[in-house]
Amino acid sequence: MYKSQRLIRLIMLVNAKKNFTLRELADELGVSQRTISRDLIELGELGIPVYSVQGRGGGFRLLNERLLPAIAFTESEATALFFASQSLAYFGSVPFGKAAASALDKFYHYLPPDLKERISRLTGKMAIWSPRRSMSAECLEVLLQAVMSRSAATIVYQSGTSADERVIQPIGLYSDQGYWYCPAYCFTRKAYRLFRADRIRSAVLNEEVCCLDEVDEKTVFNWNEDELKKAPKTDFIVRLTPEGVRMLEGNGRLQPHIECSPDGSGRIGISIPRKDVAFFADMVWMLGPEAVIIEPPEAREWVNGRLAAMQRQYAESIPESESRQVTDIPKSQAP
């Protein structure tokens, strides 16, 4: 067997095993342990993350960043992967940002020249906009690792003016309006909580805490299902203009519940937790005159309170110094 063939075979062997000894590899490939030892050193120089385990029952192990077998893609699949990676470009942080960029670079490197040229033409031609929020990519990676390895995590969470330490079992991650959210079971509070990732100041895996099976079975879609069933409810009814219907097209909470009329207007009628009235009313407030809340009364009161606050703001006179900053625009800067 040629050395190049042996090294390729060796890569496949160590990638398939969690741990191994020199004797096992030597017997498998029909060479001496000294030859295998030299080959492993070469693999290390090539970036294959092999390390030795000392003591009884030791040997060698491959780090978590194992190599995956080669996969053949069609042109359409290659384009789809490029698009999927680019769709994350406008997030402030993603839990696998550096890895995604590295993977895309490797993937792109081995494409045929004609397909490379076609995909390159997509640069700057497509975008999925997302508000850019500042948050820690390292914390996101820890949360994702905790989900993948079924581990708990210790986080420092900023809530209001104080920050406290929590031990959580993350259920998953999802993004909404540029923010990453992590539903989790909080061992500190002994309840399910939703954590906003930009408020997590630090995060480390916690291997000492035993994770719960019932938490592991939940998803980002049903993590608070039981709590919502028990919570007191109220009817949330909204009338929408055609423009209001259009403005809610990207709203995952309200859009699925819109009943449209032939003239393009719509109506929302759903049951919501009473404690979330202000949250839902705030979403409708953003639509301005394109929506009117019919029920519940406390939601209408909340909107009226916002209107009154705005009226007071605009009734106040603007200081002359600030007014000049707005009105005295040099002609060269005027549109």
What does it look like?
- By secondary structure, the chain is α+β, with helices and mostly antiparallel strands.
- Helices cover 40% and strands 22% of the residues.
- It contains 13 helices and 13 strands.
- The strands form 3 sheets. Strands 4, 5, 6, 7, 8 and 9 form a 6-stranded antiparallel β-sheet that branches.
- Helix 2 crosses helix 3.
- The longest helix has 19 residues, at 297-315.
- The N and C termini lie far apart (74 Å).
List the helices and strands and how they pair.
Blueprint: H1 3-16, E1 19-20, H2 22-29, H3 33-45, E2 50-53, E3 59-62, H4 75-86, H5 97-109, H6 113-120, H7 137-149, E4 152-159, E5 162-170, E6 174-176, E7 179-186, E8 191-196, E9 200-206, H8 213-216, H9 225-230, E10 233-240, H10 242-247, E11 258-260, E12 266-273, H11 277-285, E13 291-295, H12 297-315, H13 320-327
